[in-house]
Structure formats: structure tokens, C-alpha cells
What does this fold into?
Amino acid sequence: MPQVSMIPAPCRVLEALPQNAHDVRFVVEAPPLPAAAFAPEPGQFVMASLPGIGEAPFCVSALPGEGTAPGTFELLIRRTGRLTNLLTRLRPGETMYVRGPYGRRVDWERFEGASLIVMAGGLGLAPLRAFVRRALLRRDAFRRIDVMVGARSPDELLFKDELAAWKARRDDVHVRLIVDAAREGWGGRIGVITTLLDNFEGEVDGSHAFLCGPPVMYRHCLKRLLALGLYEGHLWLTLERRMRCGIGLCGNCQVSGHYLCQEGPLFSYRELRQLREAV
Amino acid sequence: MRRQKAMDQEVYRFPRSRLGALIERLARDYRVVGPVRRGAEHAWADVGPGAELALDYPTTMLPPRQFFAPPRELLFRFRRGADGRYTCHEPEAERPVALLGVHGCDLTGLRVLRSFHESSCRDRVVTGRLDRAFILGLACWAPCTAEAFCRDMASLESEAPAALYAWDLGDVLLVKVLTARGREVLQDVTALEAATSDEQVALRHRLRVRHEAFPSHLRFPPDRLAVALEAAADDLLWEATADRCLSCGRCNLVCPTCTCFDVGDEGTLDGAAAVRFRRWTGCQVPGFSKVAGGRDFRPTRAQQLRYRVVRKGKYMPERYGMVGCTGCGRCIAHCPTHISIREIFRQVGGGGGAGAAA
It folds into this structure.
């Protein structure tokens, strides 16, 4: 019988890389669990904490051994409150406390042979980055890969170096960026992320789309993707909820009686549309 | 038939004067808790000298779940080692609890608590406490409050998970043995005398009278709630009722089947030690459904109220196999604006108006 424990493991911070004024990308040593135990999948999350301060859920934005050194993983943490203020001040060599991974493990075989469309708004790129990395690592298993990234401004774009590296792969992955507003010097597009679907040149038949971003984005993107003809069961959304336990107990992430921390936070739209108050 | 069946099992007479001996016997192995008078009310508290067991209590404000999932509970302590890293230390298991005089609604509540904790994820802390507990159930003879509707929710006659179940006939209680452990304890304090035929007649008579004493408020069985609530998802009733909700969360706190909690930390100023604890919260408390950026995925009181009621009447039976409302009436009695889950059930279930129910 699995035992319930909310005890975290100390994990050393290996790198702390500020992305902009409030987001820090952390490379973290995986919890010293039995080696196989810490094997997150794209879309899963961990609970990260500081003793005496508190704990919060963070999606895993790079998985161990997938563009990272084995035994390390990455989190992107935005400074928004007391806990994240202190977490984002951690320096290499210091310790954060981590438990997990938690959440649904999606079988990747279902995506194989399909084209992938990734749409990330703002912080939404943090979880979706793990999806893109996985897809590029197994590039031959997929057809066309489209990555669309929206941000408030060019400064707010996350993982800029990585976006540039993806862009440099040309036909391997079609990366397009868009920002809500920009000062002079931004040569790219300005507008909302759905406009990247105007005159969409990618593939629709059998494609899977992955969405994460602010709530307003979901509705509009879903409508556009459905209008393009994507199947409801192929539209994947990661939902944000403030999990307190991660193990299906505390109830904070409940939607229509479902505990998102275990059954999600990744859902297909086909699954989600049956849940009231989900999006 | 059911009344007859009760008599076929092991039912023994238990002189009221032996209650002290029972408490003493249980105190050897358990922390003994029962209803104790507190001013005009009763509360679950340790019984013993100066805190007399009041088996004639109507009900309590907080249900017995407080002994299995306490309002605030230490999860573990952090201790900082010489290398600056913290290690975590879980608290030791406390003494098991013996609960005396638990009514049918609260016995049902404990079963619901178990059904939840044995579902998606076993909370070994909560189920462990339930496993180790000793429970003496107690039959009710009349509704404890005007708000109670246990008969409608089929919890009035609940006996499990009690080890012993008692019918109070005054000087003597008739006690039914439900578990081996119950028999063991009973044997230690009484001679296991069978009820006399007079006592058996008296019990049958009281059970008949009781049936009349509990009015039927809903004219449908609780298993119809799931369908009724689904059909009423967009009912204006939610808004009409929620308009007077103060979002105080009392209904969550007094509910025998609420399980939601929040997690928090406290640390010493020098950072040498800290604790992580969980404490009750609920879906009616402002901020419960907040996420980053101040967004709330159930922002209106109507949505929040609907969530509580639909969880009890539909999601819980669908997922855990038991309706989440025991009809104890606490949330109605303690709501400052008299919002009534019974009235909501009656409305959505088409139970008819007050006249029709008469």
C-alpha cells in the first residue's frame, strides 16, 4: 500500500539564471530518491518549499536527462509572493526542498507519428518547454512541429536562448513569437497569440496541440484550433491550480469532484469539457 | 423486519451504573472521549472526573471527525543539521481514541471519511486512526434539532463502524455487539446478560415511536440526488440562495464529511527549526479557489455554494460510493443566514412544497 507522505527531500540548486525582472530559471539536483523514483513526465509538477516559509506547486520545465544532465531537472519560478520571493533568491549551492513528481503521466505513444502544435502564453512556456524538448529529442517520431510563443513584451519572453536555438533548427521546428506590445527594435510580430494561427501552414489532420497560458488564451485558442478542424481529444491543456498536497487529499484543486493534482493538470479538451468550472 | 433482526444478534443488557466501569476499562487502552456539557451546548471532549459523559446530548457543533483529521495537525518538524540542511521528523502516533455515544449521522460521517481516504489516495494517518478507534454508537429517539434530516439521508439507523451499539432505555442500555473487540470490552465490564423480554418489548415499542418522531422532509431517496443535482446545474436557486451567503465557511467546518485542508509553515526566528502543518479549510472560504494572478476559478458565491452541495450529493457518491451528506443538520443550524442544504435538496429533488410534504 502506498504510504502518504508530504515530506520533501533537500535538493541542491546548481544554477539560478534570471530570465527577466521576476522569473528565475533553476537547474536543480533531483531528489536523492531511489534513482527511478524521480522520473517526471512532461506536464507533471513538483511541490517546492523552504522550511518555515511554505510550499507551492511548480511544473517541471525540463526533465532529467532531456537536454539536462542526468539527475538534474529545471524549474521556472516567478516572484509573486513571500515564498517565491525567497525561492528566487536562492543561489547555486543552496537548497530547496522538493517532493514529487505529481500529476498524470500521459502515454507519449499516442502522439507518435502526429504533427504537434505548441501554443504557450507567458509562463505557459515553462511546462510546455518540457514537451518541446521531449519532441525534439525524439524528432523522428513526429511529423511537423509548430511552436507558438506569446508574451507581454520582448523582455518577458522566457528561455530566449533556447527559443533562438530552436529557431536555428529551421524546418525541424517552426518557431514563431508574438508580443502584446514592444518598443522600437523588436523586429517580430505584435498582437495576440491566436493571430499566429491566421493562414496556418502547419498540419491539422491528426495533429495534437498543447496549450498553456493565461485563462483568456484557452478559450480563444481552443475555438481557433477547433475551427481549423483539430480533434477535441487532441487538444491538450495544462491547468493551473493551487495544489497544497499534490496527492489527492487537500481538495484545493478539485473540479467537479476530480482532483486535478492526480488526474491532471494535463487534460484533453474532450475530457475537460465535461468538467464544470475547469477553464 | 429490521427491528426484529436487531434482536436476533448479540444484544446484552448494560446497567447504566456500569458506564463508569466502561470508561475506566477503555481508558486503559484509549483516550476516552464523549459528549460533555459545555454551558447550554455539548461538545466532544475527554470524559473523566469533572467532565461527565452526557449520553442524553442532542448533538454537538463539531462532528467527531476532529479526532481523525484534527482542525490543525502537525505534519512534520524540520530540524536544521550541522550542514545547514533540514531533516524532517514526523510526529509519533498518539493514543487511539474511544468515542462514546456516537449518533447514526456521525457514524455515517466516519464511514464517509473512510470511503474518501481509501479512494484515490490513502491517508494512512486518518485511516490508521479510524482503524485503531473504539466506537460506541448510540441510537437517537427523537430529532436532535429541527434541522436534522438523518432519516431522509438514511443515516438514522446506521451502526457501523461502531464496535458496540446502544439503545438507551433509562436505567438500562441494550447493547449490540458488532465487532470482536466490542465483545471483548463489554465482557470486561458486564456479565453479558441477555435482555429481558420486558426490555425487548420496551425497545420495540421505542423504535416504533421513534419512526413517527422523525418526520420525512424529502420525498425521495438520497441516491436520487446525483441525477437531481445534475439536472439543476443551471438552476436560479443557486443564485437565489447564495445571495445571502456570507462566505464564512461555517458549513464546511461543522460538516462531518468535509476533508479539505490547507498547508502552512511556522518557523523559529533563527531558522533552526520549523513545522509544517495542515488545517481545515473549505470550498466556501474566500480564496479557496484562487490561483495565480488573483484569478478565481469559482469566483461567485453561487458557484461556490453549488460546489459544496453538488460535491455532497453527486460527486462523493459517484467517486467514493457514499452520499456526502449525513443529514446531521449542523450546516443548517450554524449558518448565520439559515441557508439550508435540506431545502436545496428538497427543491432540486422535486419534493414538493411545505403543504405537499405534510
Q: What stands out?
A: Residues 261 and 280 of chain B are 4 Å apart (CA to CA). Residues 2-357 of chain B form one domain.
